[in-house]
Amino acid sequence: MRIISDFVDYYDNIQSLGQDQSLLYIRKKEEIKSPFHKLHYGFVIIGFCGKLYPAYKVSNYHKDYITKYSGEWIHKWCYSIDDVIEFNEQHDQKLIKNNHLYIKQSFNNYRQMSSYMKLETLFEKYPIFVTNNYGTLTYNECLRQYEFYKIVDPFLAFQEISIFLNNIARPMKPIPEIDDKLLAEAKGFDKWSFRKEPTKRKTK
Fold first, then answer.
1. What is the dihedral of CA 64, 68, 70, 71, to 10 degrees?
2. In the chain, how many domains are there?
3. What confidence score (pLDDT) does residue 181 get?
């Protein structure tokens, strides 16, 4: 698969390993109004090759205690409530119980969307999209900024995108229905296969 894009994503280097050069992924961003209900603050939903992955952004301001005047923001994308708790413990942030339950329930609700959203429509043309809490869905979004490599490694991501695009380019043809008689004849059977064929009577 060859990728044509105006930005670099984390799985692009796999192209150097030598793949099917006849398959093209024209990775151009395209924004539409999101069909999802408005997401809770801090959440996005990443669509990747037919599956949905909710992600939550956590932040912490790390102050420089030497100068006491400057510092920097540390951000992390979490894909489970355990990731959120781990981040807060590392940065000595207390996660209020109610907020903890709210984030955990949000993760559960967004994971269940696969059961009632029409995913075949969302993934009709492109393998990747990201929808946010502003009501926008962006196709062919850059996944590196969401640290998606923690969920799908570069090689597997490249492979799954290739398979997805190949299935669009060469969709599987439906198997035609064949009645039992034609199916039997195609396999070499006829009406006398399981019974004795009548013999001609000798004339006196």
1. 30
2. 1
3. 57
Q: Which residues of 48-84 are buried (b: 16+ CB within 10 A; e: fewer)?
A: bbeebbbbbebebeeeeeeeeeeeeeeebbbbbbebb
The whole domain housing 144 covers: 2-169
Give domain status of residue 196, yes or no.
Answer: no
Q: Which residues pair with 12 in a beta bridge?
A: none
Measured between alpha carbons, how far is 123 from 50 in angstroms, rounded to an integer? 6
Tell which wins on pLDDT, 85 or 6. Answer: 6
| pLDDT score of 173 | 45
Q: What is the pTM of this model?
A: 0.76
Nearest CA among 17, 1, 9 for reference residue 169: 1
Q: Which residue has the tokens 């991501």?
A: 157
In the numeric block, the tokens 């105006």 are attached to 6
